[in-house]
Amino acid sequence: MAHSSTTRYQLTTSALTLVVGCVAGIVAMSLRERAIIEDALGERIGVVRNLSLTSVNALVGEDMGLTKAIGLLEELIRETKERPDMEVEEIEILDVRGRILTHTDRSRFAEIEDDPLARRVPLSNGVSHWYQSGAAGLRSNLLVASPLRIGSQRWGGIVVRFGMAGVNARLTETLIQILSLVGALTLVNFLSVGWVVRRWMNPITEMTRQMATVQSGNIDVRVPADRQDEIGVLSHQFNLMLKGLRRARRQREDIARKQSNIEKLAALGRLSAGVAHEINNPLGGILTCLESLRYAEVGSPRHQEYTELVRSGLERIASTVQQLLRFARGPETPKRVRLDLHQVIDEALAFSRFQNRQNRVTVVRSLGEVPNVIGDPDLLHQVFLNLILNALQAMPDGGTLEVGTWASDGLVTVVFEDNGPGIPQADHQRIFDPFFTTKEVGVGTGLGLSVALGIVEANEGTIEVSDSHGLGGGARFSIHFPAARDIETESTDQKDEDS
Amino acid sequence: MRPGDPHRLLILLIAIGMSACYQRSESRPQVQEDARDLANGRPTLALSIVPEQLPGEDILRYSHLADRLTAATPHRILLKAAGTSSVALARLRHGEADLAILGAVAFVRARRGFGAVGLARLQDRGRTTCRAAIIVRRDDPAQTIEDLRGRRLGLIDPNSTTGQLLILAGLADAGLTASDLDEIRYFDRQEPVARAVFLNEVDAGAIRDSAADRHESRGLRVLWRSEPLPGRVLVARPGLAPDVVDAIRTAVLMATPVSEEDAQSAGPAAPRFVPILESDDAAVEALMLRTYGPDASRKDLRILEAVAR
Predict the structure, then answer these.
(1) CA nearest B137: which of B199, B47, B87?
(2) Contact B26 A129 (CB under 8 A)
(3) Interface membership of A61 toward B (CB under 8 Å)
(4) What is the pLDDT of residues A74-95, one digit of tens each?
(5) By the CB < 8 Å criterion, does B51 face chain A?
């Protein structure tokens, strides 16, 4: 776009320069033409005046019986015609009735001049001149004439035809010079305007490129704003706008993080019975073992067996607490690592195991062969756990939760499908909206699926809801992730950087 | 700038260019109103004049007279310069000229010889008389006209008043005749006479006294001046229609020029005319008789006509 604007500007200014140059050229050519022609005309009029004066003297001399005029006039026109600088082509001297007294072409003696303009010359007032045009509108001949007179006394007239080849050559030379100048000016204008405009357009071009980057989602850019003109101001404003966008993005991330935390706390609440059960069971075993240890001999096999049971129970409690802490704390910053979705799914199922049993929900694992995906395992764990808990909550009197995975067309799909009451079709469009819930007041936060949507999209995935296909009724949540490629993993990047 | 302004500017520039292109200068010959009669075949009368100095100047001076006469008659007056008084006289006699401005001597001979008609006397530069002068080189030993005895003298046409009659009369008054001179040489006009004196081709020369003063700054000096004698006369050839003669006489005697413009362009040197007095002709004839002898008005005419041919 910027390039075409530059070219358009170049062409426009060049065309304008060409037009103005042509007009100026026409004016200059006309002035120069006039100067050249007037110069030539002045010289030729001078020649004719001298001829006229000399001719009158000769004719008067003949009247006075002093000279033979015709002989003198013939010698006079012969000498004048031989002047190379004047391009004299023809000279004739007429009497007052237009009869040729003498002519450079002697055969025309005593003829009546057939050119009506020339015939007028003996009766005219002073020096006159006119042109005869030749091919291409060029003046081929200049005729300068003068009556032979003193006061009102007239002896005739003299008409001299001059060639214009020299004058036309000078005019052509001038025309070529002017055209060359106009052409050179236009070319210089085209090049210089192009150079200047490109310099002006560079910041705008850079800004356009950065805008395209922003449009693709990357707002961590900045354009140079060191100019002191309007473009500098625009660049500065653009940078301010990007700064505002980055601030808004941070705020949105903060809100999302807070929503996520709220949802986590809600999930923890829902998991609390199961967690207590996971801790309480080993504690009961530990207490029984400790009681038995009081009666066991130290170092005896029974003592070692109970000690091992206590250690195992404590490790199980520690593992439960550690999982709980990890879930509650979550990642400081989202990670992008290559991960095995099946492992994340199994951890989420394990987290909800107590609720499964309590709700008499049968979990059916239909996990196929899928490639790894790129994402944050903790966040995806939260998503899966949320969907599992939602399904369990929807089936308080028991049911079936089917978890399936498969890969197709570069995508890895995870499906959670239950046979609960399902989600009304009308709510499918709103189910991922924040604070939208179909549960009773106080039961849910209304943020669970909204947070899940945010996490999935942050991991470049999509999530959709539909009615259950195979279980009859119920809801079905399908999540699609792009399959990982080697170059996309953070670990790979890290290795590359380390190396 | 309003949206239409660039277009107006462009149109203005193109208009300037186009107007510059179309300014072609030509001045084609136009027939002058006063020259149309030449083309239309108006009858002409030839007026013969004898230029004194540069022929062009005299022709210009007399062209105003010709215009005035052209306006007063059905004829167009054409000036015809003659090299000498004898040529002018011969043209008038043979009908090659209808009118002529002749000196006093030539007029007397024309009137007596072939019946030419005097119309008016020329008042040249305020004077109706003329005087002759003899010039010598500034270093010439001659101090008086008597000192020219045995010297070479340059004269003008034998029919000239100032170029011959007055000089010969002056020599006679000083007791000299042509035979007392070493040589008499004749020249066409006054300028060649002065040149011959300057170049020592002759020792002294006869010219009109008004021209003699101009030569004093050129290494010549005036040796002698004559008494004044009536000057030139406008003469008509015999046989010219009386109404034309009357019209011309009337026209030349009217002091008022044809137009104000004509008067200005003619200047103070433009010729004026006064009536011819018989006493003037009598004085001229008396001097001719005294100088040339009886039949003086005729005898030289024949000789000088031969010279003119």
Answers:
(1) B199
(2) yes
(3) yes
(4) 888 888 888 888 889 999 999 9
(5) yes
